[in-house]
Amino acid sequence: MCLAGVTNTLNGDWCTQAARNLAIRIDLGRFRFLIRDRATDFVASFDEIFTTEGIDPPKSPPEAPSANSTAERFVRTARTEMLEHTLIWNERQFRSLMVEFLARYNSHRPHRAVQQ
User: Fold this and answer.
1) Which of 27, 21, 29 minimizes the C-alpha distance to 54?
2) pLDDT at position 41 over 60
3) pTM above the 0.70 mark?
4) Which of 22, 41, 53, 110 is the most exposed place for a label (fewest CB within 10 A)?
């Protein structure tokens, strides 16, 4: 999992810029798919950034949370393991907490992606 950005004003322009920033920061060539929901905040320019890198951004079926279960599982894990036990004061603190949580989630926390 990667943290593309944090905002409290989500819109299409912000999503597209976050995708550009992510493409600059990490090697997108090692990914095949982009898991995202059908939110209207995602626009064609957002998908285009990933398509040019060879990543297929398939759309999940409408109103089917089980179709993007990987993303839903991450959101639930982040919520129950961190957010329900923390008071968030501002965007900067939230970003810092998420970076720390992602480091633990991607390396120390036992799950199949890191061979239990």
Assistant:
1) 29
2) yes
3) no
4) 110
